[in-house]
Amino acid sequence: MTFSDKDIEHIKSKGISIDAINAQIKRLKGGMAFSNLVSAAKIGSGIEHYDENETKRYIKFYEEKQNERSIIKFVPASGAATRMFKFLFHFLKHFKASKEGVENYANRKNDALLTKFLKGLENFPFYNHVMVSIKAAYSEFDTLTNDEKKLLFIKTMLDENGLNYSGLPKGLLPFHKYDKQVKTAFEEHLFESTLYATSNSVANLHFTVSKNRQLYFSNLFNRIKPILEAETKTKFNVSFSFQNQATETVALTSNGKVCRTKDNSILFRPAGHGALLDNLNKLNYDLIFIKNIDNIVCANKNKGVSQYKKLLAGVLFEVQEQIFEYLHKLDTGNLIDADFKGIALFVSYRLNVPINIDFEQYTHLEKVLYLKSILNKPLRVCGMVKNQGEPGGGPFWVKDKAGNISLQIVEFAQINFSKRNQQSIVYKATHFNPTDLVCGIKNYKGEKFDLTQFVDPEAAFITTKTQNGADIKALELPGLWNGSMAHWNSVFVEVPLETFNPVKTVNDLLKSVHQVS
Predict the structure, then answer these.
(1) Helix 86-94 / helix 146-158 crossing angle, nearest 10 deg
(2) Considering only CA atoms, which of 27, 17, 32, 14 is closest in space to residue 256?
């Protein structure tokens, strides 16, 4: 595609090459490459399950090792809270106060979300904060009708000229109300790290945030740091990063042209959480915990949940130590047939990597090189929870174009539901992925892997979005825990559903895990 001098200057200012832009356009025009599902992973076939004694053993193993390793918790936290309040924006747009009351509207529309919100109003952690703001601005508040009060509450909470909650990152929203204070999701993640993600009483955390909100996070951290460190007897090192502009992608209009802004500049869009691989790749730690900003519960409920993070880390340490032992042995070249068979069994049954059917016919050197090529990769141990009624994106056995079968985390968007056999596999799935990962990103020599070398570029997402009222085709990079980790070694472990408590709508804050009392 031909670009103007202005376009080329704009593209280069982002740190993107012209070839990369043309490749994005080609992918958008060519369509998305769907995953080829072979079967759903389940207990005994891709997902490990541990009884109480085994769980305790792995937790103990991690606790014995954690002070010997450098550890960090990586939290994607740049997303705005807009979607949490979607049903309330819909209400504000369609409600006519002159025609009916708020509750009548909710009943007429059969709006269960609005009804639940109104009934639980005083139990939201931000209730008092909103009320203080309202009464400071409206001295006549107490004279208003109940409907007027409810409407004013919602408007104050959401309006840009009010508290503008929908414009805040989720991490800065009030999440939990304690006796004397309200805490944000950001604050809760700081505390949670002390339960499992410390080494020698030091907690390292890295948050990916939007550039224009980083100062808010920093100011909050600096304000609470002395108190938190005194309470937890833990030193906190907190760092922030932003999505690299070089990871942004172009979009196409319905007629196949590059989408542009009102001033005719190329429209560049954030490329989904897959863009955060660049941020993750800049970290240099032995162990990285990954957890989304909205998947956090009250402190008094977190201690039990956090044990399962230790379980995952204990499994990773055990598997990683075995991998490193085998790699060192392979380096010596001093192996007999029994050694090769033992390593091959480990690769097949612990790393879930099928061994080539011709392996036994390989020469000694070919076996060494083949096994090293499998073992010497980043390692992830991922928690998987049971589906509760509805299937979701999660763990599947997948076949690539070369016929290789591997264990992958697959999102719905990557599945071709027009094919009955693919649809059937999804509906038989027993588990889904709650974005609960522990990662080992160093090799057996202590060197950090270049994580960009283990991405499946074919796993990019193509989605339909709206720009200025028109549909556009947008490109997202392979998901951080999907295609961006497609060529990692993976171990999937069943963990209880209680470890998964995301806040997708504001009403989720009314659930018991988010209520202190």
Answers:
(1) 130
(2) 27
Q: Tokens at residue 326, please?
A: 């085998």
Phi, psi of 340 (to 5 degrees): -60, -40
- Taken in order 92, 96, 97, 103, is the CA torsion positive or negative? negative
CA of 440: how far to CAs of 58, 178, 312, 349, 354, in Å?
A: 16, 36, 11, 19, 21
Q: Which amino acid is at 201?
A: S
pLDDT in tens, 485-516: 999 999 999 999 999 999 999 999 999 999 99
389 has a pLDDT exceeding 70: no
**How does pLDDT run across 461-483, given as a tens digit for each residue?**
898 888 777 889 999 999 999 99
- Rounded Cα distance between 188 and 224, Å, is 11
Q: What is the mean pLDDT of the chain?
A: 94
User: Residue 420 CB: number of other CB atoms within 10 A?
Assistant: 8
Res 413: pLDDT: 86
Instruction: Report the alpha-carbon distance of residue 354 to residue 374 in Å, rounded.
Output: 10
Helices of type H across 233-298:
277-281
Domains of the chain: residue spans and CATH: 5-81+169-318+425-514 (3.90.550.10), 82-167 (no CATH)
Query: In the predicted model, is pLDDT for residue 391 greater than 60?
Result: no
